[in-house]
Design a protein that fits this description.
Shape: globular
CATH architecture: 3-Layer(aba) Sandwich
Largest sheet: 4 strands, parallel
Number of domains: 1
Number of helices: 10
CATH superfamily: NAD(P)-binding Rossmann-like Domain
Oligomer: single chain
Helix content: 40-55%
Radius of gyration: 19 Å
Strand content: 5-15%
Structural class: alpha/beta
CATH class: Alpha Beta
Order of helices and strands: HEHEHEHEHEHHHEHH
Bound molecules: NADP nicotinamide-adenine-dinucleotide phosphate
CATH topology: Rossmann fold
Distance between the termini: 24 Å
Length: 293
């Protein structure tokens, strides 16, 4: 069962696992997205789109009941993937509106928790695997993330608690920490609305620079959503899965920054900000995109 399968990583993972022969229950918010998913599936009879908004108690409760009808109450694997980013309006810690932070928490943290809680009895019954799409940003927090990092950090802290409690039941809990992956997530942002004046004028160029670098790297193998789909297949398969695997463009160097002493992290990330600002101003790409897994 995969949440948020209308586009990006969720869609790619649903199609990939279906192509490998898995029966996939994939949540979408629009029927048209479900139809498109089934049309693209290698085994359409084993692709089951279900409508669900993760912020709705009623829809999540219906989802759990629907999944139980399909699986007989035993769910082998679940990928909690649905999520949103924020590169719109003021994206600083000081200026990002609380209403925006609430929306990110409602979808990325509480939405994920709502679905996982509803499905855990079925995962426990199958001694299955829970995979959560967290973010590398929980480990190395970039500035100007618009409240995205705190929402994912809350989710990961909750997942740490769950993993330690549910161990005796044989359910594995894996948090995927992706760095840059080329999906519609970025295109959904309206960077024009990010202020270029006020006390944090770099925030606008930082967000723009991120979009520029992402567009330049779009064809690179390391940033393809297929990388995450293959990783999900690995961690739900037999064998000892890493608990917090990293994936995506520049994942290794970004991870490495996060283990340095804090003052060193701050100095390096200040350099990253300057590079992003220069990228927004049209300078050649300063960042390599090595294959990171
Ligand atoms: N792309 C990256 O660089 C990156 C890096 C680290 C982590 N991630 C994480 O990866 C996950 C997937 O993102 P993506 O990059 O694949 O972006 P995406 O293409 O925008 O996919 C996001 C998915 O979540 C769904 N969604 C959003 N709000 C929802 C809600 N309230 N209820 C149910 N579904 C909802 C979207 O459905 P609609 O089409 O209906 O909106 C869409 O299917 C997210 O959790 C994101 O934080 C992405």
């Amino acid at each position: 069962m995969i949440t948020g399968a209308s586009s990006g990583i969720g869609r790619e993972t649903a199609l990939h696992l279906n192509a490998q022969g898995y029966r996939v229950i994939a949540t979408v918010r629009r029927d048209a997205d479900g139809d498109a998913l089934r049309e693209a599936a290698g085994h359409p009879d084993r692709m089951i789109p279900v409508r669900c908004d993760v912020t709705s108690d009623a829809e999540v409760s219906d989802l759990a009941a629907g999944v139980a009808r399909i699986t007989g109450g035993r769910l082998d694997a679940m990928f909690s993937n649905a999520g949103i980013a924020n590169g719109t309006g003021d994206v600083t810690a000081e200026g990002c509106p609380v209403a925006t932070l609430e929306r990110l928490v409602a979808v990325n943290y509480l939405g994920s928790v709502r679905v996982i809680q509803a499905l855990l009895p079925q995962l426990r019954a199958a001694r299955g695997t829970l995979v959560i799409n967290s973010a590398l940003m929980t480990h190395t927090v970039l500035p100007y993330n618009g409240g995205y990092a705190p929402s994912k950090a809350a989710l990961e802290a909750w997942a740490d608690q769950l993993r330690r409690e549910i161990r005796p039941h044989g359910v594995r809990v894996v948090c995927i920490r992706a760095a840059a992956i080329a999906t519609p997530l970025e295109a959904k942002q309206d960077s024009a609305g990010v202020p270029s004046d006020g006390p944090y004028p770099d925030q606008h160029a930082f967000v723009e620079g991120g979009l520029v670098l992402m567009r330049r790297a779009a064809g690179n193998a390391a940033v393809q959503p297929a990388r995450v789909a293959e990783l999900v297949e690995t961690v739900i398969g037999p064998g000892r899965a890493p608990l917090k695997p990293i994936v995506g463009g520049n994942a290794r160097p970004i991870w490495a920054i996060g283990v340095l002493p804090l003052r060193m992290q701050d100095a390096l990330l200040a350099r990253v900000v300057r590079r992003m600002v220069r990228a927004a101003q049209g300078e050649p790409p300063p960042v390599r995109w090595p294959a990171s897994r």
